[in-house]
Design a protein that fits this description.
389 residues; four-stranded antiparallel β-sheet
C-alpha cells in the first residue's frame, strides 16, 4: 500500500472518529489549536495544506477501511491553492494517507464524496472534477463526474459515462463486487447543475449512464447516497423540488430493480427535508437518514425513514438538547437491528459545533455520546460498520 505524508499546519486536523469499536466515522476538519499536534516536516513534493475533510468511509473488515474526501493544498510552482483528492486507509490500529490522483491539467481541482469497498483490494470512490468555465453571465466552477478505483496497491482514475448535460456530480456509490457498482448524483446546466438526478452503473470495465425518473416538482434535485442489497435491488435517496428562494425541499427516494429506476413516495416532515444517507440489509429492509424542518425554537432536526417493501415511514429520532440545528449525514447497518447513523449539530446556524451519533436497535433510535475535537467545524459525514459489536 502506497502512503504519503502531507504537511498539516498546526491547528488543522483531519481525523476519523471511532464511534464504537466496530464502526468508523469520517470527520470533517476545522481549527483546534488545543488538540492539534505540531506538523511534521513536509517531504519536498508535499503540498502545503490549509484545510481538509473526510466525507465518506467504507470498511470491508475491522482491520480494513478506506476514507475519502479532499484537502485544500498548494499548487506546485504557483502561489495558488486548490481542492485535491484525499484518501486514507485504516489497518485496525492507525490511519495512513494514501496517494490518490487529482485529474489535471484540464481540471481546477477535485474532491471525492463517497467510497464503497467490496474487499480490501477493491474500492470505488466517486466525486467531482472542478473546471472553471466562462460563459454569458459570468465565470462558473463546473462540476464534472469523477471516479477512482483502488486495486489494493494504488488509486487510478476511471473514465465516467458521457452525459447529456455539461455539469454533473457523483455523490454516492455502492459496490457489490469488483464488477458491480452503482453511483448516483445530479446533472444539469452550468448555472443550475441540479436539474436532474443521475445514476451510473459499473460493470468492471466501464461506467454507463442509466436513466432516472424526471423530477415531478420544479426546483433543484439530487441523489445523495445509494445502497444495494443485490444487483437487482438498490435504493437511492436525496432531495427534490429545492426552492432557490426559500430553501425548502422534499425528501426523495428512487428504487433500482436491475432494469429501471422508479420514484417512490416519501414523507417530508413539516414540508421541508432531505435524505442524505441510506443502507439496505435486505431487498425489503432499508433505513435512510437526513434532516427536516423543526418546530418551535428548533430550526432543523434529524430524520430517519424506514422502507419495508411497501412504503416509507418516518421513525422518530432524538436530537441533542443543545442543538437548534441537527442533521444525520450517513448510516451503516450490519443487520435489521444494528445500525449506526452520524451527522452534526449546532446551537446557531453556520458551522457545525458538535458531532451527532445515533444507534438503531430495530425498534427505536437512541442518541449516543460522541466526541467532538472542539474545532471550528465538527461533523461526522460518513460511517461504516464491519460488525454489530
Amino acid at each position: 500500500m502506497t502512503s504519503h505524508t502531507w504537511s498539516l499546519p498546526s491547528g488543522w486536523l483531519t481525523r476519523a472518529a471511532a464511534v464504537t469499536a466496530a464502526c468508523l466515522a469520517a470527520l470533517s476538519v476545522g481549527t483546534s489549536a488545543a488538540t492539534a499536534a505540531p506538523a511534521k516536516p513536509a517531504a519536498p513534493e508535499s503540498p502545503q495544506v490549509i484545510n481538509a475533510s473526510l466525507t465518506g468511509v467504507s470498511c470491508s473488515s475491522t482491520t480494513s477501511c478506506m476514507a475519502v474526501g479532499w484537502f485544500q493544498g498548494s499548487v506546485p510552482g504557483t502561489s495558488a491553492y486548490e481542492q485535491q483528492t484525499l484518501t486514507e486507509s485504516w489497518n485496525g490500529t492507525t490511519w495512513a494517507v494514501v496517494h490518490s490522483p487529482t485529474p489535471g491539467p484540464s481540471s481546477d481541482g477535485a474532491v471525492l464524496n463517497a467510497v464503497s469497498c467490496a474487499s480490501s483490494s477493491n474500492c470505488m470512490a466517486v466525486g467531482d472534477r472542478l473546471v472553471t468555465r466562462t460563459q454569458t453571465g459570468g465565470i462558473y466552477v463546473v462540476d464534472k463526474p469523477l471516479a477512482e478505483a483502488w486495486n489494493g496497491h494504488k488509486w487510478s482514475v476511471v473514465p465516467t459515462a458521457k452525459l447529456a448535460y455539461i455539469g454533473a456530480s457523483l455523490n454516492g456509490v455502492a459496490c457489490l463486487s469488483s464488477s458491480s457498482c452503482i453511483a448516483v448524483g445530479n446533472e444539469g446546466t452550468v448555472p443550475k447543475p441540479y436539474l436532474l438526478t443521475l445514476a451510473e452503473a459499473w460493470n468492471g470495465t466501464a461506467w454507463k449512464s442509466v436513466a432516472t425518473p424526471r423530477p415531478v416538482t420544479r426546483g433543484g434535485t439530487s441523489l445523495s447516497a445509494v445502497s444495494c442489497a443485490s444487483s437487482t435491488a438498490c435504493m437511492a435517496v436525496g432531495y427534490d423540488g429545492f426552492n432557490y428562494g426559500t430553501g425548502a425541499e422534499a425528501t426523495l427516494a428512487e428504487h433500482w430493480d436491475g432494469t429501471a429506476w422508479d420514484r417512490l413516495s416519501t414523507p417530508t416532515p413539516n414540508a421541508n427535508g432531505s435524505l442524505n444517507g441510506v443502507t439496505c440489509v435486505a431487498v425489503h429492509a432499508c433505513l435512510a437518514v437526513g434532516s427536516h424542518a423543526g418546530k418551535g425554537n428548533r430550526a432543523t432536526g434529524t430524520l430517519s425513514e424506514q422502507w419495508q417493501g411497501t412504503g416509507w415511514k418516518v421513525q422518530p429520532t432524538p436530537d441533542p438538547a443543545t442543538a437548534n440545528f441537527a442533521d444525520l449525514d450517513s448510516i451503516s447497518c450490519t443487520g435489521p437491528t444494528a445500525c449506526m447513523a452520524t451527522g452534526g449539530g449546532a446551537a446557531e446556524e453556520g458551522e457545525s459545533g458538535l458531532t451527532v451519533a445515533q444507534v438503531w436497535n430495530g425498534m427505536t433510535w437512541r442518541l449516543l455520546k460522541s466526541p467532538a475535537p472542539g474545532s471550528y467545524s465538527d461533523e461526522l459525514f460518513g460511517v461504516s460498520c464491519a460488525s454489530a459489536s
